[in-house]
Amino acid sequence: MASRITSGARLCVRASIDKLVCNLTRSRHHSAVSASGGTAVGPRLDRTLPSYQKQWNRIRSDHQRNHCRRFTTLQDTDTDSLPSIDPYRLLDDDLRDVYTDIRQELELNTNQDELRTIATYYFDGQGKALRPMVAILMAHAINYHMNNNGLDKKQKEVAMIAEMIHSASLIHDDVIDQSDFRRGKPSVNALWSHKKVAMAGDYILAVTSMMIARLNHNDVTITLSQIITDLVQGEFMQLGSKETENERFAHYLTKTYRKTASLLANSVKAEAMLAGADDKLVDVSFEYGRNIGLAFQLVDDLLDFVSSKDAMGKPTAADLKLGLATAPVLFACEKYPELNAMIMRRFQEPGDAERAFELVHKSQGLEQTRFLAKKHCLEATRLAGKIAESPYQKSLLVVPDLIVNRMK
User: Which of 143, 270, 359, 408 has its CB surrounded by the most CB atoms within 10 Å?
Assistant: First the structure.
């Protein structure tokens, strides 16, 4: 019992850590420019981390003294209370042509056949389509809340833009990570030269920039542009590491927001803006997307340790082989401090990746990662409850369950 309580205390501490980082990444503190004078405020996040870490230490001490006793795992989710609705089926008409429309945009803007082929390679309809699904779902839900009629063409284009930015980042990831396999088939990196693949990723981003300009909405332009800014900063953060445990976890969560959650958060924020929502409802949309995005990446990091290559459609344990310490490893450090040295040398010595994989499974790192993912899903569910009830709002309640219980 004592060890269970201690574990629960650590989980509550980590949940509090995340709450602090989340506060730093709220939309009002993470816009591309400030309302007063157009000054970039993105770096504010980095400047705030030292004070955040002091606050984190105080919270850790408080939780250790009070022995936080609530311990919840992913398996505790009460799925019986969720609406029996399939978001993908609900949006079948809206999603059916998304990939076709994306391919058309990419094909019409170049006369280079090979560029067309590379740029459209991942838009074959074999992905999860999570990002366009969540974006269109939020658009419908906010439209219903605002008594708007149907899905606006610009709102569908935002969903396309979100998927295009995501796929461009995958293409660039394939070059950086030298991946050979993605979505159950050879990666673009395995079929074409690095230079051509990198330029194809740039081309997709260029076309999305034209699509963003066509929306003719200044605030939406700034919001969607922030996604690309965050992606690049997140990629740079992934190349670095921090020496102390406190800094390392803050670094990981901030990187995760920028690389993954920002796209969902800012795309649904843009949908709400296009619907004419007030600032409060725009914030609800943003926070919903942010929590879904963070949960998605936490589950992804978890599956890297427990799923198979066939299930994932890409190699497993890939992060360790790339020298990356994700949530399961960072949590495992509490029980196995020897992981700290491996993290600092990015698992480069012979046997490091295999040993780290073993220690993660021997620790509670996977359970703690599940806990944190579920925490974000519960928060997303709470936020969806602030939107007027409709089939689309009910689907927003289902999405967190799809995220936290996914197997690939």
Answer: 270
